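WARN no homologs supplied; continuing
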Amino acid sequence: MKICELYQFLEERIPRSLSCEWDNDGLMCCHDQNAEVKRVLVALDVTEKIVQKAITEGYDLIVAHHPLVFSPLRALTPDDHVAKKLIALLRAGVCAMSFHTRLDAVEGGVNDVLAAALGLENVEPFGEGGEALGRIGSLAEAMTLEEFAELVRGATDADSILAADAGIPVRRVAILGGSGSSEVDAAKRAGADTYLSGELKYNHLTDAPECGINLLAAGHFHTEHPVCRRIKELLLEADATLCVEIAVSNEIRVL
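OK structure emitted
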């Protein structure tokens, strides 16, 4: 399968129309759109380690969630860490594509995968300003915040969870993988008693007990990495002969 054919397949299933206006994703780096794809490396981020793994182990393509190029580049020189990765990929003939907020919003994407891992039922989108990236659903039975935190830990492999306890049982849960502080109020208006994201601001966590909503932050990487399995499924749906590996790109650890 050619790069252009694979990208078209993925774009049909993860349409650009779902991307936030401020986002930048898509085919990030490509030396030849007619190049053949046989080996694909899937990762949440296109870090330098992921780039080197793709080059040294003979991958043709990196498919990531977070964009390799987000802010405009002023020059293509090794002095810039993003440009340095682009140069290395182009020299090695390795392509890269990213699917960011559209993968958050699409049915079966980041937040549906997370909702399924938590066992949420009757899941539906929620969000501000027409950008319904998050999901809200219900647990089969109410549980304590501590019990829900253990459920989250098991579903995401999070090594730490920040929690703000509003003193109410967990039953109606809103989720947004990654950075979700901007949606705390939307989650409460949607009827959530509990809101889980990857990152939440200090003031939201501090105010949670007074605002009547439980808040949990389980890590940006950990709340989004499960979607890599879904990306692998889509790639094999496009071409069952592809060799697809998922790599862990997390560079953050708890000391």
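The first strand starts at residue 26 and ends at 29.
OK
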